Amino acid sequence: MTIAVKTSLDVTGDVCPITFVKTKLKLEELQAGEVLEVFLNGGEPIQNVPRSVKGEGHKILEVTEVEAGKFRLLIERA
Questions:
Q1: Which of the two ends of the chain, N or C, has the fewest CB atoms closer than 10 A to its terminal CB?
Q2: Catalytic residue status for 17
Q3: Which of 6, 9, 14, 16 is labelled catalytic?
Q4: What's the pTM value of the predicted model, to 2 decimals?
């Protein structure tokens, strides 16, 4: 199954909590059911962003390591 990504966000140059703040703001631009693709680093960002996004009621569709220490997160807006 292919997931239709509405928009992408790269927060690999940012640190927590800015990674989540930018992700949250981008999600607010989407309609319910639309998918945001986020690229982020390992460590704190990959631990904190998915947990915080779930806490906001959104759905994590996929987490993939695209290269060493860099991840792709697909989030469906609630």
A1: N
A2: no
A3: 16
A4: 0.95
